[in-house]
Amino acid sequence: MKFKRPSIRFGVVCKKKYSIVVTILMVLLVCIYVGIKHQVSTYKKAVKKYIGNYSADVHKHTSIIISSAQVPSEEYSKHGSALIPYIFTQTLDHFDVGTDLSFDQTFYVNDEFYKPGGPIWFVCQGEEKAAPDRISGFIKGIKNSNFLLEMVKETSGMILLVELRYFGTSLPVQSLEAESLKHFTVDQILEDFATIIRRINIEEYSAKYRKYLTTRGFRKPKWIYFGCSFSGSLGAWMRKKYPNLVDMAYVSSGPVETTEDFYYADKNVLERYPCKDKLLMAIQLLDAIFEAPYSNKYLVDECIHKYENCPASKQKVKELCQLSASNNNNNVDSSGRDDDNDDDGDDDDDDFLYLIGSVVTTLMQYNAKATEYNDHNEDTDLVSEKTEVDELCTYLADSYDSTTTLLSLLKFINLNVIERVKNTNNIKETKDIKTALYRKQMGKNLSPHGPRPWLYLTCNEVGLFFTSSKKSWAQASLKSSRINLNYYRKSCIDWFSNGTDTYNGPAVEALTKKYGGYNFIDNRTIYVDGENDTIYPATVTFNVYTNLLKGNATKADLYPNVILLKSGHHHSEIVGDVDQVSDEIRTARLKIIAMFKHWLRDQDKAR
């Protein structure tokens, strides 16, 4: 069978059809090319307008260092199980143009809730190593594990967690000697934050943001600063100094009215302790034993007369807390006498008294749920329904005079503080307990993970020394009257003076004057404070409710962004699931989220 040769007509038809197809393909290719060119042009304009030409405008000493292994993928952005630490190369001294020294500042990014147009929450956790687990609770499947995550989710934002200089892995120096700490100041910290906000390219760390960056509707992200306690203070000062960089702020329990002799903390806690009368009896006898100013020595005579086991000496009191030299067999010589002279010094006595007072005030400051020892050898202790304040007052419930109350207080501190510190750190020696708990010992700790940088900042600039409010015979205090301004100043001199400098205390007045103290009330900052907090008298909220509103809560609507929690403590509105917090905190949370959403909408409309 022969096949017929195709006709010329069929060849012409095929040729015409082929030409039409080619023409259509050419048109499509041109359209695609034009579209891509327009998209690239739009991308370049957006980047140049809102981020700047970062390839050519990188600061001489401030840049992002990121390895290829750290580039986040789309999968990581959605389902990452752990947050990756990144490094920002930060300038050591922002105010000396003649230096090029820098250090690595650690930061983390969580974009799990990010949607186009959402804000960036700039988070600093204060004077400690950055804890990324606190900004990744939802990733672990813990719903509403803290209020920060709830706010970020509700505003479709992402979190940029920045570690404070001199803490964690963000160490500018190898040694923590006094000279090496000179760059740890409030202004240097604020400039760190401002530099990061100006220079960071978020698209390098968030696939979600990178995708949004290429869309036609791209807008420059709004920045919300979030901080608690000292990091909250930094947020208030950031809004004062850099309102063009930080659009809004959340300040939880952030003291801003810096003062050196901060005895107001003691007074505030004293007024609110449910068993304050018994605590005062114990502290009065303790002061008499340690011969503190304005103490009644006859209380010791009464104790000796009534009780055979009266702890009438300093050593006996310390023995009850395992903090006497006699508690350590290694410190007793062959004759049985105390061979440790450390107990004989005023410094040791003052640190012991500081510890007792700090335990009492700190319990009220946080009022955390009490933890009970688990007797069934399980991995975790039991969490009680009672608070630690309730537990302390229960210990004192059956006491009836200064001696029985002091003995009960010392028993509580020994079991709930000393024993736990020993067990947690596997401590056996008395001197090691003192190193862990005594304030002056903490300041001598040159470890990069210790509190020395923070103590330097308090001695140099911030102050807020929790002194005794007992300044005369007529006054009462939960702290020994020996814990006065001289105690703190002497510590600062011992830690940071070279022996020739004159120390006149921290520059608290200059700091308050520069940033306005609690008189600077920003209308795009939310201030939240608990009335039972030790630092409450140094906050904007205290100034508003005590000085401006004169206690008239009916006028609170005049300051809707200033929120007082009558039953609140130190940043108590931040921690806890929705079903675990009080109605007062739950209501405050709803108000706060609504306020941020309102402000974000207002700023969008203004663009």
Automatic annotation (TrEMBL):
Assigned keywords, A-Z: Glycoprotein, Hydrolase, Membrane, Protease, Signal, Transmembrane, Transmembrane helix
Transmembrane regions listed in the UniProt entry: 20-36
GO biological process: proteolysis
Residue segments, region Disordered: 328-347
GO molecular function ontology, one term from the record: serine-type exopeptidase activity
Domain of life: Eukaryota
Family that this chain belongs to: Belongs to the peptidase S28 family.
Name under which the protein is recorded: Putative serine protease
Lineage: Eukaryota, Fungi, Fungi incertae sedis, Zoopagomycota, Kickxellomycotina
